[in-house]
Design a protein that fits this description.
With 328 residues, the chain is an alpha+beta fold. It has helices spanning 2-21, 60-75, 89-97, 108-115, 125-140, 160-166, 171-180, 191-195, 200-207, 221-230, 244-248, 272-277, 280-285, 287-291, 294-305, 311-321, and strands at 37-38, 51-57, 79-86, 103-107, 142-144, 154-158, 187-188, 236-240, 252-253, 266-271, 325-326.
Length: 328
Amino acid sequence: MRSVSRVRRLLASLLAVVLVATGCGLNNGGSVPLPVGPGPQGVVPELEGVKVTVGGKDFTEGVIASYLVEFLLAAAGMEVSDMSSLAGSNSFRQALVTGQVDIGMEYTGTAWMSYLGNDEPVRDPQQQWEAVREADLAEHDIRWLPPTTVDNTYSFAMNRATAEATGVRTFSEYADLVRSDPQAAVSCMETEFSVRRDGWPGLAEVYGFDAATVPTPIMQPGIIYQATSVGRECAFGEVYTTDGRVKGLDLVVLEDDKRFFPVYNLATVVRGSFLDAHPQIEQVLAPLIDLLTNEVMVELNMRVDVDGEDPALVARDFLVAEGLVTAG
């Protein structure tokens, strides 16, 4: 029965990847993927009929985040154009800076290091958001609304059997394992992570172990999760902390006890001129700040990546359940 269950989960994961990659059959610039009606707050008169283009990134969490914004704005009465599932972070960023997109959701660490060109992250989440907010406002007139506590950063994970056999729960304990038995610490990762300063080389430096002694098979992200759950090729695997497959595959995530990895808090970003013209948007999207946590996002991501649900349905169901929109 367990093998059948795994096959079903794998097939569901493959289906979800296809759904996200194709934008659920929608073309960028299309309408909102599902109908929604106002929640108890009703339509916002100042926003009714105002055109807005919402952008987003082409991975599960990015697509879900885009739809959450789209549905809330549509329920407030705005005429929403969908540009979710843009190919890669840089595509979304360029669309926002050039005005092709008015609004979307972005990660503080990504903006700070990838867009604004800083070499070192700010370790404190609030200070990182403040630094990004000030720099992006000054350089690009991009406004950062207050962040959620969603922190989609890097980590390593292992299956339950490895956790019990090694006793490893933190990266400091992982480093001890590397020093005592590097072959027991075989760690699978993406090519990019293996060379990034905020990836494998920096991790080894901060935690004080010799990276060269550890076997590090290079794999695609989706394969890493599955291989780590099995545990034969990967005792440990690089993961994103809010990925639904972490919970779906019952993986144990290591604690970054020295806070090495950058903070990647999810927040709404808006073109300054657009927010000045329509300041009511901030109040419409304010509920997301308190509602979106790592635990919530893992559940939403899992419904897509593990259970094979449509990300648009997942986003709308969540907002309906929270009483923020009606199903249209």
